[in-house]
Specification:
Elements: E1 18-25, H1 31-41, E2 45-46, E3 58-61, E4 64-67, E5 80-85, H2 89-99, E6 109-112, E7 117-120, E8 126-130, E9 143-152, H3 156-166, E10 171-177, E11 180-190, E12 194-201, E13 212-217, H4 221-229, E14 233-238, E15 241-248, E16 255-265
Parallel strand pairs: 1-4, 5-8, 9-12, 13-16
Antiparallel strand pairs: 1-13, 2-3, 3-4, 5-9, 6-7, 7-8, 10-11, 11-12, 14-15, 15-16
Helix pairs in contact: 1-2
Length: about 300
């Protein structure tokens, strides 16, 4: 083989330290409208093993989840948009139409954007559904693939430096996020098909209300030490988990954005836990044998 005939940009295969964005956690007051939106319309699956009571619900999307405790009458609203890949965007559109009447009087809304669907849950959280595509991971048919946060103008540079220098994640400035073409944003690589975006906006950003995201990382102690030196660790959960909330410019310490990060090691008992996923197109009136579960989840 002539090794000089081909050259490769090997950096395109670098994944960095953030291995997997597993869940977003938002408080919601009532499981009934939550079920209509996140299970019936979006096509998620209520976890049958964990959090099956009335005070919390975990909803599976491929290898990712939404965690939605219902212990507080005041809902939490993520300041941005959660991006999902779904196997059939047209089916999501049909299900959005189906739940619309039952969700009247809530903050529910949805828009047919052609190849994508943009929707707002009954409590005000924004989601965007995309068809499968290589940029969301080869073979990914269902899952949470990004969070696109609304970030203050002028913050993207420092946020990219924070994730690169403190968290060990490939991060760069981009000219647009999946739903915000033209916006200046920081893009942070998570695993092989997920990302965090921090898209600058001139619009007012609501105060942080305590919602969080959970990420598994490979180098568990390195970022911890750097955050501890800056007095940014907010919770020492156990040997497998710690948390922080403030994203700062590593050079100046200036606060740029706040969202709680639940950071787990790859030794965490829940890491790579198999998640049950149903086929949301299966019905009792048009039942197909052997089609109850959604295939291709790994």
């Amino acid at each position: 083989m002539d090794t000089k005939t081909k050259t490769y940009d090997r950096t395109t295969e670098d994944l960095g330290n953030l291995v997997h964005l597993e869940h977003v956690n938002i408080l919601q007051p009532d499981q009934r409208p939550t079920t209509l939106f996140y299970v019936v319309a979006l096509g998620g699956t209520r976890d049958p093993y964990v959090m099956v009571g009335l005070d919390n619900m975990w909803v599976n999307y491929g290898r990712t989840q939404m965690h939605m405790p219902s212990r507080d009458p005041q809902p939490q609203v993520l300041r941005g948009t959660i991006g999902f890949v779904v196997p059939d965007v047209d089916a999501v559109k049909a299900r959005m139409k189906r739940v619309a009447a039952a969700l009247a009087g809530t903050r529910f809304a949805w828009q047919d954007c052609g190849k994508t669907v943009e929707a707002t849950c009954p409590w005000g959280n924004r989601v965007r559904c995309h068809p499968p595509a290589p940029e969301y991971g080869d073979g990914t048919q269902l899952g949470m693939v990004y969070i696109d946060y609304d970030a203050p103008a002028g913050s993207a540079d420092g946020i990219a430096r924070f994730y690169s220098e403190i968290m060990g994640a490939p991060a760069k400035l981009v000219s647009g996020s999946p739903g915000g073409a033209g916006k200046r944003a920081a893009r942070v690589q998570v695993g092989r098909g997920q990302a965090l975006y921090f898209s600058e906006t001139d619009q007012p950003i609501p105060p942080y209300d305590g919602h969080h995201m959970e990420i598994y990382i490979n180098d568990f102690s390195g970022p911890y030490r750097k955050l501890l030196e800056r007095d940014l660790i907010t919770m020492e959960t156990d040997s497998h988990e710690w948390r922080f909330q403030k994203i700062v410019d590593p050079a100046t310490g200036k606060l740029l954005f706040e969202v709680e990060h639940e950071i787990r090691s790859l030794k965490h008992p829940l890491y790579a836990r198999p998640l049950v996923n149903r086929n949301p197109s299966q019905t009792n009136t048009a039942y197909l044998r052997g089609q109850d579960s959604f295939p291709g989840i790994y």
